[in-house]
Automatic annotation (TrEMBL):
Keywords: ATP-binding, Kinase, Nucleotide-binding, Serine/threonine-protein kinase, Transferase. SMART domains: S_TKc. GO terms for molecular function: ATP binding; protein serine/threonine kinase activity. It catalyses: L-seryl-[protein] + ATP = O-phospho-L-seryl-[protein] + ADP + H(+); L-threonyl-[protein] + ATP = O-phospho-L-threonyl-[protein] + ADP + H(+). This is non-specific serine/threonine protein kinase. It comes from the Eukaryota. Residues 3-280 form the Protein kinase domain. The keyword Metal-binding does not apply. The lineage of its organism: Eukaryota, Sar, Alveolata, Colpodellida, Chromeraceae.
């Protein structure tokens, strides 16, 4: 990155994240070398579309399209918050869990599955200490009550091993409740300062790694998951998390069990967790209502079928000329093409160029 950025503050499966030096509330995502491709161009537009669709949802970070994200006056990720504070006090835990569930419920009401919830993809604002969901790169718009089929799942690389639901790890069909499981893992970490699944089937330091990394290197991943079920249940039931205030520990454990239920039919949705858990009894979260989401315009998410693998994102009008370009020249042309494509798809016209900040070089 250039002089306008500070130190690296995060790294994912396909990008590295930096904080802007002059504007601490601005975070820049730089694509890693192997991911500067047409495929990522399609994923980038998916992220833009989902962010624009969710821009009115409270608790979801406001995007400036692809690589710029408002971090709310220089807040920090939940991962950094846990490292700095350690196990959360009871009142703070209730607040953060309530805000996270409400934000996720708003996202689901708008028809979007996040698919990669983890402490690194959630922020805490510096001013109000409110939780925000970020990083919609792995998000998927499925509409109300939609499911992601197994054949579609096998083609998508999303999720992080230590926070993935069992159905995602097994490449089975899944729906909105896959996010409930991920959030349960985050809540345990907030309460104890330790990752829930690290001792079960994820080794130290592996929790936040992309699921695709393990699928490529560990063929026995499903066997590891199966053998971990007993260990996971023991950790939840016998070695229940010890909060600083033990009085509501059973209520919190009950909330965790309902979110981490392996049977998808029995697992609760975010809204059911808010309204039905004794952990939020007598709090504002027990009766909070969802705002009516704005419906997606007709054809808003048609880009994935329009630009599939058979019709890749065109870089120029002359395919033969494109073949002669060097990698550096191809990268520059790709960046220009993505900017034009995004302006056309999001705005329907070719202005607003100053709003686009997608650096693929």
């Amino acid at each position: 990155m250039g002089k306008g950025t500070e130190k690296q503050i995060g790294e994912g499966g396909s990008s590295t994240v930096f904080r802007d030096r002059k504007r601490r509330g601005l975070v820049i995502k730089e694509l890693l070398e192997p991911f500067r491709s047409r495929k990522v161009a399609r994923l980038s537009l998916r992220e833009i579309k989902i962010a624009k669709h969710l821009e009115k949802c409270k608790g979801v970070i406001k995007r400036r399209f692809v690589v710029r994200v408002d971090m709310d006056d220089g807040g920090e990720t939940v991962h950094d918050f846990i490292r700095r504070v350690g196990p959360s006090k009871l009142r703070k835990l209730q607040q953060m869990c309530g805000e996270s569930l409400h934000a996720l419920a708003q996202m689901h009401a708008a028809g979007v599955i996040h698919r990669d919830l983890k402490p690194e993809n959630m922020t805490v604002t510096a001013k109000d200490q409110e939780v925000r969901l970020i990083d919609l790169e792995g998000g998927r718009f499925v509409g109300k009550g939609g499911r992601v089929l197994m054949k579609e799942r096998s083609r998508s690389d999303c999720g992080s091993l230590g926070y993935c639901s069992p159905e995602m790890i097994r490449d089975a069909e899944y729906d909105f409740k896959t996010d409930s499981y991920s959030l349960g893992c985050v809540f345990y970490e907030l309460a104890t300062g330790k990752a829930l699944l690290e001792s079960a089937y994820v080794k130290d330091g592996e929790a936040a790694r992309p699921l695709s990394y393990f699928k490529a290197k560990h063929r026995q991943l499903t066997e590891r998951l199966d053998s971990s079920e007993t260990a996971l249940q023991k950790r939840l039931v016998q070695d229940s998390p010890k909060l600083r205030d033990d009085r509501l520990c059973p209520f919190f454990c009950s909330l965790l069990s309902s979110l981490l239920e392996r049977d998808v039919k029995k697992r609760v949705t975010p809204l059911q967790a808010l309204h039905g858990s004794d952990f939020f009894k007598d709090s504002e979260w027990a009766s909070i209502a969802l705002e009516e989401p704005s419906p997606a315009p007709e054809g808003f998410f048609d880009y994935e079928t329009k630009y599939d693998k058979k019709t890749p994102l065109p870089l120029c009008d002359d395919p033969e000329y494109e073949k002669k370009l060097s990698q550096h020249e191809l990268g520059r042309l790709l960046g220009q093409s993505i900017r034009r494509w995004i302006r056309s798809a999001v705005h329907g016209r070719r202005d607003h160029g100053s709003d686009i900040c997608l650096d693929v070089l």
